[in-house]
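quick q for whoever's on today - can somebody do inverse folding on this one?? i tried earlier but teh output was garbage lol. tokens:
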């Protein structure tokens, strides 16, 4: 006699508590602070749901859930000056760039 189990346990974002609360630890894009729930699925049908213990960070781009304690602080445009100076070629670069357009190094 054979028995095949087709199912699994996954996490789903239930409610966004704070949008853009930090950055993703995997891809670096914006991550939201969310309340989540765990879902048991059998044959791809949700059977049982229960809430998570505490809020977690959720990245909409790579769909990663991770603890709030691991997130770097959110990047703000107020910290970036209008004109930067590349530390390698010493040329002035606009503050919107993340890489130097002259030498290609990260700013």
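ok took a stab at it. sequence:
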């Amino acid at each position: 006699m054979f028995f095949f189990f087709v199912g699994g346990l996954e996490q789903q974002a239930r409610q966004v508590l704070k949008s853009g609360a930090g950055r993703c630890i995997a891809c670096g894009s914006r991550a939201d602070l969310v309340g989540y729930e765990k879902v048991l699925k059998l044959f791809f049908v949700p059977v049982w749901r229960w809430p998570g213990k505490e809020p977690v960070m959720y990245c909409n781009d790579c769909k990663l859930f991770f603890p709030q304690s691991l997130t770097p602080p959110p990047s703000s445009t107020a910290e970036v000056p209008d004109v930067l100076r590349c530390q390698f070629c010493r040329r002035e670069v606009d503050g919107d760039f993340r890489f130097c357009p002259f030498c290609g190094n990260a700013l």
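fwiw The chain is about 0% helix and 45% strand. also Residues 7-70 form one domain. so keep that in mind when u check it
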